[in-house]
Amino acid sequence: MRKHWILICFINFFIASLMGLLLRWMYVSPIEGVNFQFLMHGHSHVAMLGWVYLMLYCLIFHFFVPKEAQQKTIYNRLFWVTELAVVGMMIDFPAQGYAFVSILFSTLHIFCSYYFCYLIWKDAKPATFPERRMLRTALFFMVFSTLGVWCLGPAVGLLGKASAFYQIAIQFFLHFQFNGWFMFAVLALFFKQSKINIDEKKFRLFYNLFIIGTVLTLALPVSWSLSNPIFYWINVIGVVIQLFSAILFIQFIQTQLLTFFAPLSSLEKIVYRFALLSLALKIIIQMVVLVPELAQVSHQIRNFVIGYIHLTMLGIITGFLFGFAFQNGFLNSKNAVQKWGTILFLLGFVATEILLFLQGIWLFLNNVSFPDYYKNLFLLSIFLPTGLLMLTIGIFKFKPKII
Q1: What is the signed CA dihedral for 92, 96, 102, 103, rounded to 10 degrees?
Q2: I want to staple 238 with a disulfide (CB 3.0 to 4.6 A). Which of 74, 107, 217, 279 is the partner?
Q3: Three-state secondary structure string covering 148-177
Q4: From CA 305, how far away is CA 351, in angstroms rounded?
């Protein structure tokens, strides 16, 4: 893997975490001249598109594109054009929010992602049927999710930003990015790394259930904008189907996990178990939200929303990405700086998640906040960029595998 690609991904992630830390400080002490909403747009775009997207770009390129195709200069050029789009959003979203320049860079990123899909679809050579099916489905969801983005302009022009159409378009994009493109890509890479042998007939059943559940659970965010009982029941069916697909997934991997974990270092085992536990917690939360009263509260109490998004983004997806990076020598588990950086990051994540969900539960039960909640959340959040800074610095101190 090209060292500068990995380095750029971690620099983007570090900057996104600093933006997130600043957002939490603004609850403690607002900063004159800094627009909270604009900064939040910058934080979310850099985290999603500068960290997760580009890291998946690197890993998919490394694991699924044959060596001869990796020599094409187009992949390197496309990476840097995509990073240019990320830097543009990194600068302009905090400054102006959704304005001409930020929308221009966002659009550039979308077209870069389309071209990446074309290249990977053409060049990638997954070794097994599950890898191929999951990778191609991930690419499909990446493109499919952008339909929500293209609907934003007409939604604003016809009905305004306060309309259900506008809100549903945003939720459509986010749902199929997180639960479609990101999740399926991570699982494609996990199947590649674990070398788990799965019967094709059983895999098809798991795959079909997972697809159906992913589509149907869009009904929950839609129900936040359109009040109709039908969306609740569609989500119930989707969550139950996802539960069955998760049970099948566990059956696939449980007998072969010991073989997969055996050669890993202790830190690599911790990171992978952390990601799998986060995935289990996500499914449990989806089951809890089947209670109608809690389904509505889950949207109304912001702590639950942020906690759930971070559970998916930092717990599941980032957990797996860290695991892949350590296992393949792109990060070094024996490097003290990177080891302690990872530990600090995980501790910061766990501590802030506990505080977010406890605050949400406390608000639900008592309608009041914890004393010094925002100050404590800010202090615990310092561990996240600190850990990422140590990981980034560690990349300079050893030579990862380079193509």
Answers
A1: 180
A2: 217
A3: HHHHHHHHHHHCCCCCHHHHHHHHHHHHHH
A4: 16
Average pLDDT value over all residues in the chain: 90
Q: What is the pLDDT of residue 398?
A: 67
Among 115, 116, 103, 100, CA closest to 45:
103
Q: CA 55, CA 57: separation in Å to the nearest integer?
A: 5
Q: In Å, how far from its chain's centre is CA 68?
A: 30
Q: What is residue 367's three-state secondary structure?
A: coil
Burial zone of 257 (CB within 10 Å; 0-12 exposed, 13-18 middle, 19+ buried): middle
DSSP 104-163: HHHHHHHHHHHHHHHHHHHH---SSHHHHHHHHHHHHHHHHHHHHHHHHHHHHHHT-TTS
What span, in angstroms and rounded, lies between the C-alpha atoms of 176 and 221?
12
The mean per-residue pLDDT over the stretch 71-92 comes to: 94
Containing 334, the helix (H) or strand (E) segment is none
Instruction: At 309, list the tokens.
Output: 């998004």
Q: Could you tell me the two tokens for 9?
A: 């991904």
Region for 33 from its dihedrals, namely left if φ exceeds 0, alpha if ψ lies in -120 to 50, beta otherwise:
left
In tens, the pLDDT along 23-70 reads 999 999 988 889 999 999 999 999 999 999 999 999 999 999 998 888
What are residue 126's phi and psi, to 5 degrees?
Answer: -60, 145
Q: What is the DSSP-derived secondary structure letter of residue 32?
A: T
The one-letter amino acid at 189: L
Higher model confidence: residue 402 or residue 51? 51
